[in-house]
Every structure is written in structure tokens, then in C-alpha cells.
Design goal:
This protein is mostly beta strands and about 525 residues long. The chain has 2 domains: about 220 residues, 5 Propeller (Tachylectin-2, Chain A), CATH 2.115.10; about 200 residues, Sandwich (Jelly Rolls). Helix content is about 0%, strand content about 50%. The protein has 1 helix and 39 strands. The strands form 9 sheets. Strands 25, 27, 28, 30, 35, 36, 37 and 39 form an 8-stranded antiparallel β-sheet that branches. It has a 6-stranded antiparallel β-sheet with strand order 29-38-31-32-33-34, with no helix packed on it. Strands 15, 16, 17, 18 and 19 form a 5-stranded antiparallel β-sheet that branches. A hairpin with a 7-residue loop joins strand 27 and strand 28. The longest helix is centred in the last third of the chain and has 4 residues. It starts with a strand and ends with a strand.
Length: about 525
């Protein structure tokens, strides 16, 4: 029996994938928007099994996300390797100080990654790099047309990159405005050279249901480019909103040492209706070249949940433990913060074997950097459990678990003080807050559990291990989905502490956090 693999290869909020090969190793990066550290790196040897390899942007000096709106921040990175150097090029949207397109470099995938080289006169988004055989480097990106006839009327443009100065130089070339008449948002460009021809692959149609992948080719990198007569080479928009994989697009290609071609791309998995709490995930599908054009998943033409694996030696990695006991000196790569942390509100050393979160005035419901340590929801069905020690001293203080889509759409499942300590479940939807449930508890150690069966969420607590008591069951979780909340991200679940605008020297200690899940497909 031939080996098969399962999609998505990176479940949960891993959009805008870009991949490169270095020898027998494959490296992949994704967008992270308002989350810090920025741009996760994953490593694989078989294109199916991936392990975390750190992040590109780990220092506040590299990434200023102060005040960034939800789904602002880092958009659509591209990773490439040339001459022994890794390059990642990216867009920072809405930066308060610097913003726009920039490049960082590293001598090895684990770093150290440089400070950003900000590109002058590089308008638009979704930058990409191409290194030609003659030693020249080229920048390709999306930009709005000055005489745009409609919203989303833009083009892909090209300019040479001076790698010594790390700036664009020379003439600017307009390459392509997309395959469809009145195409919207031609973006996510990547250039490849195959059998002497230059290929420009893009996304178009917007990053929602009408997303697609199109391609054009030219004898010269500067054009003119002719579109593939079979465009779009990939889309699921014609399959209906009840199809289990939707929104396919924003792709990148990679060739294996044996000459196989594979495509990584984003797509969504709706469930409970046309809702996708997991956001845009990374999928894999095969590509074959015919008549000088790529054919995606030959004979099928769609991205599927299961298919034949690449002809590469299988390389699974040890599974990450479901439970983090916070015994390491640093947080694991699964954990993220909201926006750039300007102070260390978390600590793993003051109480060994625990994660300590300081209560600070910053709140989850504003565009700040709250005391939040979270991880992606990666499964349709999941259970998250944690053990917390916390004694609130005033009604302003709270700590517990949160399910986050953005500052205006989330659930807070926290311990606070009324006349006595209580555990409360608060739903924040479109900026309005509702207390869904409240129960009295004892101060001190408490166990918290959130479980999801599709879009039905249940919240439990225990004052003794495994003696769970319900707080709320079958709560509708669809507010955590992009079609409800807007934006581009997927849901997070994490640990949170706040003094809600008031000063505090209190803290919450987390003994462990466990996440386990399964999917319906």
C-alpha cells in the first residue's frame, strides 16, 4: 500500500504559507498578524510531518505591534534561501513607527535573524523574492493601480533588489493584473524558473470563499506574461459553501530532489454551518507539469483531506506532549502573546514548575498587550484543561482561561471577587459583554476546563482534581469564527490575568495547561 498523508498539514491558524527547500530540508513560514513572536518557522524532511523551528521575529526591536488592530500586523511572508543565507520578506501593516515591506536575513534557520531592512518606495503588500541564475535578485509584490476602476483593482509589479544596500533599484515593471476580467486582489506573487521559462503564480479573488490560484509565464522575468489558458489552476469556489474545504489559495511551490512538485496553500474547514473558528490553515497538494503549465492534483483538481504522500523518506517527529507543566526555562514555541510585550509579565523562575502571570491594568478588550499567553485552537473537537492558583483581592482582579478571536469577540472564563470569589463566564460580542454564568468558589487552587464538540462549547471547574462541575454547557462558539468576527485570524485559547485598569501587585500561578483534540473529518 502506498503511503498517504492527511490535510491540513498545519492545522489551526497557519495562513499564507511559504516554503523553501535547502538540500533535504524544507522550511515553512506563516502570517501572524497581531501575535508575538512573529512568523513561526516549521521544519520538515517529507513535506508531511512538520516540527516547530522557532520564529523569525522574536525581539521587540524587530517587531513593533503596539496598538495594532486585530488582523493588522504581519501579512504574507515569503521565505527563500540563496548563497547560504535565509531571507524572509514581509509586510507590517498599520505600524505606529515603521510600516510597510521589509527583509530579515539569517545564516541558519534557527537564527540569529537580523533587524529589519525596511524597503523605501515599495508600496503594496505580499512581497516575494526571486534569485535568478545570473546572480540578480528581484522583488515582486502587489500594489494598487493609480487609476483603479473598482475596489481590489491592483497589479503585480517587479523591481530589482540591491542586496548590498538592501533597497530596490532600477526600472519598475508592471507584470500582471490577474487572470479574471475585473479580477480583485491579485496578490501573494511568487516567481519560479522552470525549463527556462519564468512563471508568476498569484492568488486572486480575495482570501475568502472566492479565493483562487492563477499563473502566467514569460520568456523574460520582466515580461510580458501570458496567462495560463486553464486559469485558475486551483479554486474551490465553484464547489459550494457546504464543501468541507473552502477558500483554497495563496500558494507556494517547491520541488523535491526527485523532481516532484508540491504546493502548499491556505484553506478553511467550515463546520456548524459556514463558520471556521480554526481560521485559514496550511494544506498540501501535488502538482504535475503538462504542456508547460502546472496541473494541481492531476485527475482530481481539488485539494483533498487524504492523498498519496510525497516520494520522500518518511520523517515523523516526536509528538509534542499534550500537557505543558512549565518545567522549562522558557515558554515553548506553541505559546504566543498579543502584540509586542514591553515588560515581562510572565515568569517561569519565581515558582519553579509554574507559569506566573502578573495582573496588570491592560485588558483583553482593548488593543493592548495584556497578560495573555495563548495557543492556537487546532481541532474542531478539543478539550483544554489547566490548574491555576489565584486569590482575587478586589472586584477589578481576574484570572482564568479565555477563548479569543479578537478584542471584541471572545469568551473570558475567569475567577474574580464579588462579595466572595466567583468564577464567571463572560461573552464579548461586537464590543458588548454578557455574563453567561457565575458560580461561587473557594479561593486558591482551581481546575478549569473548556471543551468543544463542534460549535458547542462547555465550561467546567473543579476545586478537587477531576471533580468537575458545570458552569455553562452547549454555548454557541460561532462568535470565534471569522465570518462572524471579521478579520483574518483563527481562534486562540490561553491563560489570562488582569486588574482591569487598576494597579495591582497580584499574580496567578499556573501549574499546568493541557490541550488535546480531534477532528470530525
Amino acid at each position: 500500500m502506498p503511503r498517504t498523508f492527511r490535510n491540513p498539514i498545519l492545522p489551526g491558524f497557519y495562513p499564507d504559507p511559504s516554503v523553501c527547500r535547502v538540500g533535504e530540508d524544507y522550511y515553512l513560514v506563516n502570517s501572524t498578524f497581531e501575535f508575538f513572536p512573529g512568523l513561526p518557522i516549521h521544519h520538515s524532511r517529507d513535506l508531511v510531518h512538520w516540527r516547530p523551528a522557532g520564529h523569525v521575529l522574536t525581539r521587540p526591536s524587530q517587531l513593533n505591534l503596539d496598538g495594532i488592530r486585530p488582523s493588522g500586523g504581519l501579512w504574507a511572508p515569503t521565505i527563500r534561501h540563496h548563497g547560504g543565507v535565509f531571507y524572509v520578506i514581509n509586510t507590517l501593516m498599520d505600524g505606529r513607527k515603521e510600516k510597510g515591506n521589509f527583509i530579515v536575513t539569517a545564516p541558519a534557520i534557527e537564527g540569529p535573524w537580523s533587524e529589519p531592512y525596511w524597503l523605501n518606495d515599495a508600496p503594496g503588500i505580499d512581497p516575494s523574492l526571486f534569485f535568478d541564475g545570473d546572480g540578480r535578485a528581484w522583488y515582486a509584490g502587489n500594489r494598487a493601480l493609480p487609476d483603479a476602476e473598482y475596489s481590489g483593482h491592483s497589479e503585480i509589479w517587479l523591481q530589482e533588489l540591491d542586496r548590498k544596500a538592501m533597497q530596490l533599484t532600477g526600472p519598475i515593471y508592471s507584470l500582471w493584473a490577474g487572470a479574471l476580467k475585473r479580477a480583485i486582489w491579485p496578490e501573494g506573487p511568487h516567481i519560479y524558473k522552470v525549463n527556462g521559462m519564468y512563471y508568476l503564480m498569484i492568488a486572486e479573488g480575495g482570501t475568502g470563499h472566492d479565493h483562487s490560484v492563477s499563473i502566467a509565464r514569460s520568456e523574460k522575468i520582466t515580461g510580458p506574461y501570458e496567462g495560463c489558458p486553464r486559469n485558475p489552476i486551483l479554486t474551490h469556489r465553484h464547489l459550494g459553501k457546504d464543501y468541507p474545504i473552502v477558500g483554497t489559495g495563496h500558494a507556494d511551490l517547491v520541488e523535491t530532489p526527485k523532481g516532484e512538485w508540491w504546493m502548499v496553500l491556505l484553506a478553511m474547514r467550515p463546520y456548524g454551518g459556514y463558520f471556521y473558528n480554526l481560521g485559514r490553515e496550511t494544506f498540501l497538494t501535488p502538482v504535475r507539469w503538462e504542456d508547460g503549465w502546472p496541473v494541481v492534483n492531476p485527475g482530481i483538481g481539488r485539494v483533498e483531506f487524504e492523498g498519496p504522500a510525497p516520494d520522500l523518506p518518511e520523517q515523523p517527529w516526536p509528538a509534542a506532549p499534550a500537557c505543558d507543566h512549565f518545567d522549562s526555562p522558557a515558554l515553548g514555541p506553541q505559546w504566543n502573546f498579543l502584540r509586542t510585550p514591553r515588560e515581562e509579565f510572565w515568569n517561569l523562575a519565581e515558582r519553579p514548575g509554574h507559569l506566573r502571570l502578573r495582573l496588570r491594568p491592560q485588558m483583553l478588550a482593548v488593543k493592548a498587550n495584556p497578560s495573555f499567553v495563548g495557543r492556537r485552537q487546532q481541532h474542531i473537537d478539543f478539550t483544554a484543561r489547566a490548574a491555576m492558583e489565584f486569590t482575587p483581592r478586589s472586584p477589578d482582579e481576574c484570572a482564568g482561561l479565555v477563548l479569543l478571536q479578537n478584542d471584541d469577540f471572545h469568551f473570558r472564563f475567569t475567577v474574580t471577587l464579588e462579595k466572595e470569589p466567583v468564577i464567571r463566564l463572560i461573552k464579548r460580542e461586537r464590543g458588548s459583554e454578557t455574563v453567561l454564568a457565575s458560580k461561587a468558589i473557594r479561593s486558591g487552587k482551581v481546575y478549569l476546563k473548556v471543551s468543544a464538540a463542534g460549535q458547542a462549547f462547555s465550561f467546567h471547574f473543579a476545586e478537587q482534581s477531576e471533580r468537575w462541575q458545570p458552569v455553562a454547557e452547549n454555548v454557541d462558539g460561532r462568535i470565534l469564527s471569522t465570518p462572524v468576527a471579521g478579520g483574518f485570524i483563527g481562534a486562540y485559547i490561553g491563560m489570562y490575568a488582569s486588574s482591569n485598569g487598576k494597579p495591582s501587585d497580584n499574580f496567578a500561578d499556573w501549574d499546568w495547561f493541557e490541550y488535546a483534540g480531534s477532528d470530525l473529518q
